[in-house]
UniProtKB/TrEMBL annotation:
Keyword set includes Lipoprotein: yes
Name assigned to this protein: YjbF family lipoprotein
SUPFAM superfamilies found in the cross-reference section: YmcC-like
Leader peptide range in chain numbering: 1-22
UniProt source species: Marinomonas sargassi
Alphabetical UniProt keywords: Lipoprotein, Signal
Length: 241
């Protein structure tokens, strides 16, 4: 799917370097920069050349049936207990999406419902899509006191699929997950497209379609300039042993 022929949303140019700390002050700075940029770049189309020139990781996001927008990675925080990065993606209207291994684990500033937290029963980070056939998740939502909704998740592999944009073509592994809430007697299906490990970088999610909850917002994300995590020297040694 080529988004560049469809996206005519405002450019959200941030003058914020990616922060490795993810602290609240950096998040506030990111919001302020985005608000300033909204006026400066209003009405300009998002082009492949513009996205390629950005020094930041970025994604094109579509919320339900709304026009796609460009969001920028504002912070990347490594969580030791989860052995993964928590990535915060920011738009200029103060909305944010937090992902771990491509999976949406929190949303901020969406109208209607927001995902407050997605975690496993042992409070570890959820598994990378495609690495576990079944697992249990716990969802918290706002507004209202809607905490500790347990879901049974069943994963299915759909094989290899090619995804192309004007910037790249990638061969991916397509995985779907059926998320079933027994207490609510309802379910939804999320989809993930993962690029296998390449060279000195770990595998990563390049495209997703996810719901933040049953009968809640659908979020489509295309990581047009993905966050690439290098493989450590230790991991390289273990892989060759």
């Amino acid at each position: 799917m080529n988004f560049f022929n469809k996206v005519t949303a405002h450019l959200f140019l941030l003058t914020l370097a990616i922060s490795a700390s993810g602290c609240s002050s950096n998040f506030t700075d990111a919001i302020n920069s985005a608000l300033e940029a909204r006026t400066i770049n209003k009405g300009l189309p998002i082009t492949a050349e513009y996205v390629n020139s950005l020094p930041y990781a970025s994604a094109i996001v579509k919320l339900n049936d709304r026009a796609p927008i460009l969001i920028i990675l504002s912070s990347a925080e490594y969580i030791n207990s989860k052995y993964s990065y928590s990535l915060t993606w920011l738009s200029s209207d103060k909305a944010a999406i937090v992902t771990e291994n491509g999976r949406i684990v929190k949303t901020i500033g969406l109208t209607g419902n927001n995902l407050e937290q997605l975690f496993t029963q042992n409070h570890n980070g959820p598994p990378t899509p495609g690495t576990s056939k079944s697992w249990h998740a716990i969802y918290d939502w706002s507004p209202g006191y809607r905490y500790n909704f347990t879901a049974d998740i069943q994963s299915k592999t759909h094989g290899s699929e090619q995804i192309s944009t004007e910037l790249w073509t990638e061969q991916t592994e397509h995985t779907s997950e059926i998320v079933f809430f027994e207490s609510l007697n309802t379910s939804f299906t999320n989809h993930f497209w993962k690029v296998p490990q390449q060279g000195s970088y770990k595998s990563y999610i390049i495209k997703t379609t996810q719901y933040i909850g049953p009968n809640m917002d659908k979020i489509e994300m295309l990581f047009i300039k993905p966050f690439l995590e290098p493989i450590s020297a230790t991991e390289n040694r273990e892989a060759t042993q």
